[in-house]
Design brief:
Largest sheet: 2 strands, antiparallel
Shape: elongated
Low-confidence stretches: none
Helix content: 40-55%
Bound molecules: zinc ion
Number of strands: 2
Mean pLDDT: 80
Strand content: 5-15%
Length: about 50
């Protein structure tokens, strides 16, 4: 039985897409580090824009 466990927390997922989605939502920093290694030049919008 194939089960993918999140490398950051204890959650497990059946498919890679689910794990991928979980990482992008619950562990955005983890994904960011990974993409940085690949040399991605994607621009991430600020999570908490300053209020005016
Ligand atoms: Zn997790």
């Amino acid at each position: 039985m194939d089960v993918l466990q999140c490398p950051v927390c204890e959650l497990r997922f059946r498919s890679e897409s689910e794990l991928d989605q979980h990482l992008s939502i619950d562990h955005p920093n983890f994904r960011a580090e990974e993409s940085e290694e690949r040399g991605s030049s994607a621009v991430r919008p600020p999570r908490h824009p300053p209020e005016r």
